[in-house]
Specification:
By secondary structure, the protein is of the alpha/beta class. The chain folds into two domains: 17-164, Rossmann fold; 168-304, LD-carboxypeptidase A C-terminal domain-like (Glucose Oxidase, domain 1, 3-Layer(bba) Sandwich), CATH 3.50.30.60. It contains ten helices and 14 strands. The protein has an eight-stranded mixed β-sheet with strand order 6-14-13-8-9-10-11-7. The chain has a six-stranded mixed β-sheet with strand order 2-1-3-4-5-12, with helices on both faces. Helix 9 runs parallel beside helix 10. The relative contact order is 0.17.
């Protein structure tokens, strides 16, 4: 089974109502307020979900109970007045709530952009596998990078409102780890989350035919090795068409990280581009997941065959 493209949601327009949810960790209220102000500056009508400012009664690393976080996401996705759903932040917790979503209702609702990264990788995969929807690997609206970096904000804004203007993306630092060109459907996100999802109802059997995006944060090189080795041993990387590597913030000296990436991925015989500028870095590209694209690892570009949103 090869990776299939997802249904592309509609692009946003001025005046659209959008929801901001906290499916994982708790959100600093002042950062959430600043993120909502940015969205208002884009002529959107942002609404914070009921538990976006909350915290779990005992597990302080969660924004609220699993049921409440799932309910917030469910209601936002199924509300026809809401035209996009933004994650306020990542952290941890999406794995605890994703099984509580009503996937029949999710599939019945009109598709809309789902934006987030890091722990939200769990939701990107679930919405692809269970609902067949293309999503956006992009910054969290209460995240530090979104709030401080103009390029990060502008990349997301253009993808949401004028996706035809971002058909080809690249990063100033991108370079080939393995040269070549490949074509496939984009998928992926946080490496350790993808490895942790193996064997669940929301994990695809493999990445065959896909262009795999990988990044992570705070994992030492041997832990990155372990996650990549798990994907290799499980056969999940069999048939992957190409690989796009993003940031590896707080994972140790990049030279050591690069040694692991080259050792584990260099023998797959597919193009691999590194330092592509998405994930947990100082600036972050917005990259569509579930759309057909061509990777030119030698030139350091990713070109989408159609706009991310219709």
């Amino acid at each position: 089974m090869t990776v299939a493209p997802g249904v592309r949601p509609p692009r946003l327009r001025p005046g659209d109502r959008v929801a901001v949810v906290a499916p994982s960790g708790p959100v600093a209220p002042e950062r959430l307020d600043r993120g909502l102000d940015v969205l208002r500056g884009w002529d959107l009508d942002p609404v914070a979900a009921p538990h976006a400012r909350g915290a779990h009664a005992t597990l302080r690393y969660l924004a609220a109970s699993d049921e409440d976080r799932a309910r917030d996401l469910q209601r936002a996705w199924c509300d026809p007045a809401v035209r996009a759903v933004f994650a306020a932040r990542g952290g941890y917790g999406a794995q605890r709530m994703v099984d509580l979503l009503d996937w029949r209702a999710v599939r019945a609702a009109a598709p809309k952009p789902l934006i987030g990264f890091s722990d939200v990788t769990v939701l990107h995969e679930a919405f692809a596998v269970r609902a067949g929807v293309a999503t956006l690997h992009g910054p969290a609206v209460a995240g530090e990078v979104f709030l401080k970096d103009d390029a990060t904000r502008e990349g997301l804004r253009r993808t949401l409102f004028a996706p035809s203007t971002v058909r080809t993306v690249s990063s100033p630092k991108s370079r080939p780890l393995v040269s070549g060109r490949a074509r496939g459907v984009t998928l992926g996100g946080c490496l350790t989350m993808l490895a942790s999802e193996l064997g669940t109802a929301h994990a695809r059997p493999c990445a065959a035919g896909g262009l795999l995006l990988l990044e992570d944060v705070g994992e030492s090189p041997y832990r990155l090795d372990r996650a990549l080795t798990q994907l290799l041993r499980a056969g999940w990387l069999d048939g992957v068409a190409g690989i796009v590597l993003g940031s590896w913030a707080h994972c140790g000296p990049y030279a050591r990280v690069r040694e692991v990436l080259a050792d584990r991925l260099g023998g797959l015989g597919v193009p691999v581009v590194e330092e592509f500028g998405f994930g947990h870095g100082d600036s972050a590209l917005t990259l569509p997941l579930g759309v057909m694209a061509e990777l030119d690892a030698t030139a350091g570009t990713l070109t989408f065959e159609g706009p991310a949103l219709r």
